[in-house]
Amino acid sequence: MDATPESLRSFFARDQLRNGRGLLIRAINPQDKDVLQEGLHRLSAESSYCRFFHFKNDLSLQELKDFTEPDFDRHVALVAVDEDLELVVGVTRYFRCDDLPLRTAEITLAVEDEYHGLGVGSLLLGHLVDIGRAAGYREFRAAVLGENYKMLDVLYNMNLPLRRSMEGNTVEVHLSLDQPPVI
Within 10 Å of residue 121's Cβ, how many Cβ atoms? Predict the structure, then answer.
């Protein structure tokens, strides 16, 4: 896989959800600002809280710019599109952590509520892992609220070596990208 920023800006892959519907995974782009805002409006209060650690109903203009115009080097972002409805139903991203000794990135994931349990999150993160490995990352980290069992299940079922720690009500999950999958 070519993990150069130029190549990643045009990244796309086709997958299939557990219900048989087609899913397109592609790089986010600046034209997705309205789509991202509309998707946030469709999230339940619980899903918004789990993603942002507080309820968030709108993204500021600066957040929309930051989220839809990544450099695809330090910050990579992918969206999942239900091909039948032409609807963005999930987004994942990583941000490089410069303050850590290993080549590490912080990851985030949000999936529309009605698509929970259909494999969107696992498919998105699978592609993000492939990109991260190709870009030389050794570890992904995710800070997850302890009550966010859905996200924890997705991370634990990635078949990657992991370790976790608790800090208050947050679980810090460390996924190793430089070791073979756990089977």
Answer: 24
pLDDT string in tens for the chain (183-residue length)? 999 999 999 999 999 999 999 999 999 999 999 998 898 889 888 888 778 777 778 888 999 999 999 999 999 999 999 998 889 999 999 999 988 777 999 999 999 999 999 999 999 999 999 999 999 999 999 999 999 999 999 999 999 999 999 999 999 999 999 876 665
Domains of the chain: 5-176 (3.40.630.30)
Could you tell me how many residues make up the chain?
Answer: 183
d(CA 91, CA 77): 7
Compute the distance between CA of residue 24 and CA of residue 21 in angstroms, rounded to an integer. 10
Q: Read off the tokens for 58.
A: 């709108």
The predicted model scores a pTM of 0.93
- Are the CB atoms for 81 and 26 separated by under 8 Å? yes
**CA dihedral angle for residue 95, residue 100, residue 103, residue 108, rounded to 10 degrees:** -30
